[in-house]
Amino acid sequence: AGVKEDSFNVLDLAEYTKNRPWWRKVFSSSSGSSAEKYNVATQLVIGGVTGWCTGFIFQKVGKLAATAVGGGFFLLQIANHTGYIKVDWKLVERDMNKAKQQLKLHSSGNKMSPEVKSRVDEVIIFLKKNVILTGGFAGGFLLGMAS
């Protein structure tokens, strides 16, 4: 008659990440400048490594995306030429012109939604506070794109 209850530990990921300092110290908006916590060499290494990884991945994904888009367009041209599909090019041209007009209309006003503007402002503040980290990231990103 002794039923043993199993006890489970629940892991709250939000609390778990709050207790892990390195990510929040480097990238938290409330953490201030990384110059207050890390020396110049550490900031350059962190920025350079993350930039290189990002650039390398961006380059590989970019090549894959370009190949997929180009290959898809090439297959559509072959299918159109051989008669498997019929493309209404006048409709395509009309839709492209409509999209161009909408882009011109949106870009001429330069109106950003408040959500986007607040995010852009947060990024600019982070970049200004962490100039060395940002410079390391930019250099690493370019090296990653080149490799």
From TrEMBL:
Membrane topology per record: Multi-pass membrane protein
One Pfam family linked to the record: FUN14
Coarse class of the protein's main subcellular location: mitochondrion
Keywords linked to the UniProt accession: Membrane, Mitochondrion, Mitochondrion outer membrane, Nucleus, Phosphoprotein, Transcription, Transcription regulation, Transmembrane, Transmembrane helix
Keyword presence, Flavoprotein: no
This protein's GO CC annotations: mitochondrial outer membrane; nucleus
Signal peptide segment: none
Intracellular or extracellular location(s): Mitochondrion outer membrane; Nucleus
GO BP terms: autophagy of mitochondrion
Stretches of the chain forming a coiled coil according to its record: none
InterPro entries registered for this protein in UniProt: FUN14
Similarity comment text for this entry: Belongs to the FUN14 family.
Purpose of the protein: Binds directly and specifically 1,2-Diacyl-sn-glycero-3-phospho-(1'-myo-inositol-3',4',5'-bisphosphate) (PIP3) leading to the recruitment of PIP3 to mitochondria and may play a role in the regulation of the platelet activation via AKT/GSK3B/cGMP signaling pathways. May act as transcription factor that regulates SREBP1 (isoform SREBP-1C) expression in order to modulate triglyceride (TG) homeostasis in hepatocytes.
Protein name stated in the entry: FUN14 domain-containing protein 2
Species of provenance: Balearica regulorum gibbericeps (East African grey crowned-crane)
